[in-house]
């Protein structure tokens, strides 16, 4: 958590007092990217061309749970019928094993809603509505 707070402070340091919505969203995405790197990247990539232990999270928002091609999901997750809405992702981040008993992913435990908000802002930034890779 110490690293999370440091990353968050570094990302928010340049935030002007009266930032417009687009600026604030950009800051949330930047903070979210740093928090994702600290909390999630050890197992997940947000670019399908990068290796990761877990399934890539590019285009995860509104994707059916357990549906990334060729990833060996647990039966519980692949048969869940869940769609990764922001609410479902928030519940997963907070207590994935409570949310989905039988999952093979270790417990995450990101309970701070601000940290969840920033990670979700980042995941939105790497999600396209057509399911194609995000272009930089």
TrEMBL record:
A Pfam cross-reference name: Cytochrom_C
Q: Which parts of the sequence belong to the Cytochrome c domain?
A: 27-127
* N-terminal signal peptide: 1-19
Please indicate if the UniProt record lists Metal-binding as a keyword.
Answer: yes
Q: Which InterPro entries match?
A: Cyt_c-like_dom, Cyt_c-like_dom_sf, Cyt_c_1A/1B
Which terms are listed as keywords in the entry?
Electron transport, Heme, Iron, Metal-binding, Signal, Transport
Instruction: State the Gene Ontology terms under molecular function.
Output: electron transfer activity; heme binding; metal ion binding
Q: Which SUPFAM superfamilies match?
A: Cytochrome c
Query: PANTHER family recorded for this chain?
Result: CYTOCHROME C
What is the protein name given in its UniProt record? Answer: C-type cytochrome
Q: Which organism is it from?
A: Thalassobius vesicularis
